[in-house]
Amino acid sequence: MDILPFFSLGAGFLFYALIKFFHKVWWIPMRIQFLMGSQGIRGPSYRFIYGNTKEISTMREKSMGGPMELSHHIFPRLQPHLHSWFKLYGMSFLQWHGATAELVVTDPEFVKEIMNNREQYYPKPEADVFTKKITGDGLVASKGEKWTKLRKLANHAFHAESLKARVDTQEISVEGIIDECKTFYTAGHGTTTLLLSWAILLLAINTDWQEKARQEVLKVLGCGRPNSEGISRLKLMGMIISETLRLYPPAVSLTRKVQREVRLQNLILPANMNLNIPALALHHDPKIWGEDAHLFKPERFSEGVAKATNNRPSAYIPFGLGPRVCVGSSFAIDEVKIVLAMILQRYTFTLSPNYIHSPIQVIAIRPKHGVQVVLHAF
Ligand code: HEM
Predict the structure, then answer these.
(1) What are the protein's UniProt keywords (predicted)?
(2) Which of 30, 33, 11 is nearest to 22 (CA)?
(3) Residue 37 pLDDT > 70
(4) Most buried residue, 206, 295, 327, 363, by most Cβ within 10 Å?
């Protein structure tokens, strides 16, 4: 039998696969780098296949290796690559996650335009199969009509319109409900726990604010159980929570995809690149918050977010922004208010001498060794 045709067919396939591979890992990155460079957007050079991932992980391993002094100046520690590249390349630059281009965007006007876009120019990047299995193919990951339907349902559920929600629920399958449960658990539980942990740390260090919060709780709720009307009147506590979410936002950055070539303000963005909105960087930017950006000062929020950000509210995005803003934000804040109120009603607390300040970022920002406090009953 003549095996030559099979051999050349195999070689043809191999050649095609190689071309495809190089197109993806070399030609496209070079083209995007050139297109963005010609518009004044610079950044660390693309390295074959790896992009900048190796540099990023080396820098992060070094900066997050050990504990730090007890300060909230955590941006250079958690995101050393962004910290140094902002200085080198400016506040918008191009970095590479493997062969995927990622434009880091910090201008609040850009952030607003990307996050508020309703024409779906900037969808969420596709979650991989494994992530979907764990987190559920629910509201966080869904798109298009499925998202519209689930979002409506979730909005009802969180606004206690239980009858209407029950009617709507009949439209979704059992698998759909399981996916939503997984989604709410993964999106809501860890994030809220972290918010509570950081708030406890901040109040244990700033005992003046702890006392102010306690006085407010005692005035509004007395020693009784928190109720929804009372919870909504805990203004100082609301400011403390906002400031905690500014300094230690559980979601460090938000990512979107450029679906097809699009104009973003003065830039033309090629298709298939990602956009990275670094919430932590925005929350710690002295140009927005002032030179005391890394200090715990809940009074910034006494007249709301617009005033605190000097009229750039899109620079404060602990729950995201626009149509895909967190659906559980009020629920999370109420939950944290209830727990804090119940602790403050019964105890004063100070930081334990065993506490080691070692914030790390593993998906969310977390205290590596937990937060230990000493409770004093009164
Ligand atoms: C402090 C606590 C929380 C934080 C910091 C937080 C943060 C966020 C952020 C930043 C987003 C937007 C992500 C993006 O645009 O890419 C988001 C979306 C979402 N969050 Fe939360 N979240 C919290 C609590 C919760 C809770 C308690 C629930 C549910 C019980 C929840 C459910 C969701 C869902 C379903 C979405 C997706 C909404 C959509 O795409 O339409 N979150 N969250």
Answers:
(1) Heme, Iron, Membrane, Metal-binding, Monooxygenase, Oxidoreductase, Transmembrane, Transmembrane helix
(2) 30
(3) yes
(4) 327
Active site residue 181: no
Q: CA angle 368-373-378, nearest 5°?
A: 165
Residues with CB under 6 A from ligand 1: 124, 139-140, 151, 183-184, 187-188, 191-192, 195, 250-251, 254, 318-320, 324, 326-328, 331-332
Tokens for 316?
A: 């404060």
Structure tokens belonging to residue 85: 């590249």
Q: Give per-residue pLDDT as tens, 169-204.
A: 667 788 888 888 888 888 889 999 999 999 999 999
Residue nearest (by alpha carbon) to ligand 1 atom 24: 188
pLDDT tens string 68-127: 999 999 999 999 999 999 999 999 999 999 999 999 999 999 999 999 987 789 999 987
DSSP string, 318-375: TT--GGGS-TTHHHHHHHHHHHHHHHHHHEEEEE-TT----EEEESEEEETT---EEE
**What is the DSSP track for 157-196?**
HHTT-HHHHHHHHTTS-HHHHHHHHHHHHHHHHHHHHHHH
The DSSP secondary-structure symbol of 322 reads G
Which of these ranges, 25-29, 50-54, 127-131, 227-231, has the smallest mean pLDDT?
A: 127-131
Whose CA is closest to 337, among 184, 217, 248, 205? 217
How far, in Å, CA of 372 to CA of 356, rounded? 9
| Amino acid (1-letter code) at residue 247 | L
Q: Two tokens at 229? A: 């009307």
pTM over 0.90? The answer is yes
Q: List binding-site positions for heme.
A: 326
CA distance 336 to 231: 10
Rounded to an integer, what distance in angstroms lies between the CA atom of residue 19 and that of residue 13? 10
User: Residue 128: how many CB atoms within 10 A of its CB?
Assistant: 8
Cβ pair 258, 25 in contact under 8 A: no
Q: How far is CA 219 from the centre of its chain?
A: 34
CA 30 to ligand 1 centroid distance, Å: 35
Residues forming a β-bridge with 143: none
Contact 206, 296 (CB under 8 A): yes
Distance between Cα 187 and ligand 1 center (Å): 6
